[in-house]
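haha ok so turns out i had the wrong file open the whole time. this is the CORRECT one, sorry everyone. sequence first:
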Amino acid sequence: MRLDSKYFDRIRTRRKREQETEQAPPTCQWDGCDKKGSHRAPVGRNAEGQFFLFCFEHVKEYNKGYNYFSGLSDGEIARYQKEAITGHRPTWTVGVNKSAKDSPLHSEVRSGAYSRVRDPFGFVKEGGKSSGPRFPQARKLKSLESKAFDTMGLNADATSAEIKSRYKELVKKHHPDANGGDRGSEERFRAVIQAYQLLKQNGFC
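then structure:
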C-alpha cells in the first residue's frame, strides 16, 4: 500500500485498553470480620464442592468445630462409611453361584459318569429320594466298566449302595485271612478290588 494512498488515512488503530484493575480479594465471611477471605472451608455434607471463605484465624476456628456427620445417628454414620468404600455405588458379592455348589466335579463330567441333565431335586445324585437306578439315562458302558460290573456280579444299572454292599461282601468272602491263603481266592480278591476302584473312579459309586 502506498503511504500517500487515500485509504491509508482511514486506518485507525485502537488505543490500548487500560489494564483492568485487579479485583480485590473477597472479605472473610465470618460475622463481623472485614479481613481478606483467602482460605476455603467446606460448607458441609450434601454441599460438596461449595466453600466458605474465611481469613486465616477464622478458618482455623471453623475447622475446630467442623463435623461432616453432624445430625446423623451412629448407625447412619457407620452405613455411610461402609458405602463410601465403594464410592456409594451398588455392589454384589463376587463369585456367588448357588447352582455351582450342586454341580458335578470336572472329573465326573470328563469321564462321562455324570448324567448331563438338569437335576434340581437331586434324584440322580447319590442319596436322592429316587429308589431307581442312579443313572436313569444310562450311557453306553466302556469295556473295562462292563467287565468290572461282571467281576462284581452286578448289573450295569446297580446303584451306588448296591455296588458298595457287594464290594464289602466279596472282600470279606475272598480275603486271604478268610481262605487260608488259597491262591485262587487271592486272585479273585485282587480282581474285586481293581473292579471296585475302576467303578469308583468313573463315578459309579
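DSSP finds six helices and two strands in the chain.
again sry for the mixup
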